[in-house]
Amino acid sequence: TLGRLFDFNKLAIYQEQSASKFEPLSSDANNLDGLNIHCAIIDELHAHKTRDVWDVLETATGARLQSLLFGITTAGFNKEGICYEQRDYAIKVLRGYNSDVEGAVKDDSYFAIIYTLDEGDDPFDETVWQKANPGLGICKRWDDLRRLAKKAKEQVSARVNFFTKHMNVWVTAESAWMDMIKWEKCEYIAPQHELD
């Protein structure tokens, strides 16, 4: 078993023979300078208020030939933050292998996968849920997602959590006070003569 190959304490899993360790890091970027890492995993990148930790860890991979920096997250609501910036770049990279697509970037050092709904999908339609939840029925239960969807449909305040955490859809605010689905149905484009 792996337990025979590694030692551990409350702070880290380590192997003295290779001078390797796996440990949680501070969320304070000021305490992370000087690292020389093979791999860093930043969980819930959307929750990072600044890009500082990402930048320090990205710099810390520079001395290694095969270093990896992972950002794992659900959607959030800060479209000015590092997570949305990485999402935007990921989309450009995913388009990058089709040179005819505007805004495409070819970057073989960047791997991205985004599980989310397509624009225009109804988040309350069960037939689209697996787009954002590829493990639905395996590591996430259908009945639980149905319960959360019902709650979000009935309670505007529950929608942000349902959209971001379960449909991986970015929203514009931490909390909802208006039913945006109903709001969007009210769209009216006024003819020019009404505006004159």
Number of helices: 7
Helix coverage percent:
25-40%
Q: Which structural class is indicated by helix and strand composition?
A: alpha+beta
Query: How are strands sequenced across the largest beta sheet?
Result: 1-2-3
* First-residue to last-residue Cα separation: 77 Å
Please give the radius of gyration in angstroms: 21 Å
Cα shape: globular
In total, the number of strands is 5
Global mean pLDDT: 89
Order of helices and strands: EEEEHEHHHHHH
* Main β-sheet description: 3 strands, antiparallel
Overall number of structural domains: 1
**Residue fraction in strands:** 5-15%
Ranges where pLDDT stays below 50 over 5 or more residues in a row are none
**Oligomeric status:** single chain
GO molecular function: endonuclease activity
Pfam families: TerL_ATPase, TerL_nuclease
Domain Terminase large subunit-like endonuclease: 105-187
Domain Terminase large subunit-like ATPase: 8-90
